[in-house]
Automatic annotation (TrEMBL):
Database matches in InterPro entries: CRAL-TRIO_dom, CRAL-TRIO_dom_sf, CRAL/TRIO_N_dom, CRAL/TRIO_N_dom_sf
Source organism: Cinchona calisaya
PROSITE patterns: CRAL_TRIO
Sequence ranges assigned to domain CRAL-TRIO in this UniProt record: 80-240
Protein name: CRAL-TRIO domain-containing protein
UniProt cross-references to SUPFAM superfamilies, sorted A to Z: CRAL/TRIO domain (SSF52087), CRAL/TRIO N-terminal domain (SSF46938)
SMART domains given in the database record: CRAL_TRIO_N (SM01100), SEC14 (SM00516)
Amino acid sequence: MGVVSAEAIRQFQALMEEVDEEPLKTTFQNVHQGYLTDTCMRFLRAREGNVSKAHKMLVDCLKWRVQNEIDDILAKPIIPTDLYRSIRDSQLLGLSGYSREGLPVFAVGAGLSTFDKASVHYYVQSHIQINEYRDRVILPAATKKYGKHISKCIKILDMNGLKLSALSQIKMLTIIFSIDDLNYPEKTITYYIVNVPYIFSTCWKVVKPLLQERTKRKIQVLSGCGQDDLLKIMDYSSLPHFCREESSGSSQHSNSSANNCFSLDHPFHQQLYNYIKQQSLNYERAKPMKQGSVHVDLPEVMTEESQIVKTLESELQKFGKDNELANSVNGLKINDH
């Protein structure tokens, strides 16, 4: 749903004015940061303009934030540094630059992320911290720099390296996507998918019809590394390394850590990690810090995502069986000669 009526926004804001108990009121202020209408529009779009559903969604989000202390999550570093480096090497996500309109460009190594170096709670903690850093630091800084309110980002998903083994990662990705859909709705304006292997093309034909129309409109599958199309909306310096033709095409490895926005050595992750360390020092003065991962309540209800995951699992398994059969037939032919 693209357009939200002024009446729906008015009704939604009136309902939210009734939320006056602490700490829901405080966390709501941290969510909208003075842009109340924009926040209401995001949640309304996520619920197809239905005011009561959008209201329930936002209140549930606020309760989730309070119960899991999301307002304080940027004061809870993942330590030691070697553990965080392992997470960055297996959860490929980073900020590569900005579009010409000032939208932050986040790169996601969907094909080569393995999520196998830490517990699920560390990966969820890391993802939420990047979300919160985006909303509290990156987007306000972009708003100030470009002189207009910027509340959304662009994501570029690299499918290079996607294999049948991705089946084991789908549930982890589903948890992350569900957290985003339920608590950070409509924060991404467009998803660009690049370096698409045959296995993705096969699955995409089956999954695409399952997506809601508002989701379909956001997704663009680009040819090759996507460089030609992406240069229409951003400068070369903002392209992720895997969208540069001279790169090896790998999400994970680059000639320079300064160019690889997934690396802990990249300026974005250095700034993020230093910010969290500084916040933790301020936080510790108020109350002692617990060691270990932050355990965030994971989504129990997954609607669109659950259907997509089941379909993906089925298609990947079928794809694997077809490949095994083809390999067996080829082996028989070779032996016949």
